[in-house]
Amino acid sequence: MEEAGVEENQRVLRVLEVLKQASKDLQNKPGFFKNDCNSSAMKALLELETEADNILSNDPNLSILSKHLTCLKTLVDKVGRSQGYSLRSFLHRQIQNYEISRVAGSIENEIQAWIDRKNIENLVSALQGSSIDEEEKVKLLSQLEARLSQGFSRNLQDLVLNSKVFSVLEFVLCNPNFSKRIREQSARVVQALVRFNKDVFVGQVLMGTSVRALISMASNSSIQVLCSLIRSIKSPLVDEIESNGEIPKIISFLSAADLLLRVTAMDCILDIAYFGRREAIEAMLEEGLIEKLLELQRSELGGDLIDMVRFDENEKSGVCAGGVEIESKAKKENKEGKILEGHPYASCVARFAVHLEVGEGLRQREKRAFKQDILRRVREACFSDAEAATIVAEVLWGSSP
């Protein structure tokens, strides 16, 4: 019985997708019906209107759509009968074409609302049950992520809130019984919800357990989502991370076996440096972050960013005057980005200091105090005076040449 219901929904969905595309064609060029009565879009619309009683009558949510289809058929018939070349006939056709476009827009909205409703119902049911396989769950999650990325919709937001989608996603994130793949895709949907409407979903992120779940997952994907949330929510989220005692865990990812996770953890630390307030920065420094960054800067993936860029430039001719010099600066920035792709820890101590200095979380006097603290820690942790002099110079003047 349940399988029959699923098949019926799939049948209706296929028909509605065809109708939705035809409705878009109508809105783009409502007059094309008169000149192309055999178009596939027109056939789909008129055939669906004929079969409306059989396909749409069983679902009360599609009753308005059925009325729109009947209205559309009437308008199309009127345009088809309007064959005169007088000014009056021309104006009449223009008015009818406008009405066709308007009704087509209403049809598209009704179809999208039905599709959203069914997809969310199926998603919540799949995540709360155990009969659906992993592939189908990931597919449903990906569909919602893609839909949210299309932009804000009041109807979609109401569906998400009424269905308690965020709570279901948070349950999945915090439940290790779900596979890593499903949990990571759920995290990406949470990220999409925040982008969809920060005013509504940021509060749910801050009050819930999703951030702790992301950190406990300790995967490259989950920390990427965490970075995105920090950039969206800024200082309040960093405050939450610090108050939950999660900063030591994030710093520990710099020593993870997974290289991608280590690199993403570096990005996360730079984001925290940019948006973090005094308590968060103190927590990172007390955890030995500067010493760890120095260790990474000495590794094969580290190095001196200024020297790397200058070495690359010395292989080419000198800089000319005027506009060519400006172009050269842009090229330097591009070269720096490419170098960081292969050496993600290059000048990482100075980059951390720069993020503190230009960031939003600290007052000016706090920035000055932390800069002095960083310099002190660098001098204490360096192996030689030469190494200390190089890194201190980078911290004082910034990592960019």
Automatic annotation (TrEMBL):
Domain of life where this protein originates: Eukaryota
InterPro entries: ARM-like, ARM-type_fold
SUPFAM superfamilies referenced in this protein's UniProt entry, alphabetically: ARM repeat (SSF48371)
Gene3D superfamilies referenced in this protein's UniProt entry, alphabetically: Leucine-rich Repeat Variant
Designated name of the protein: Uncharacterized protein
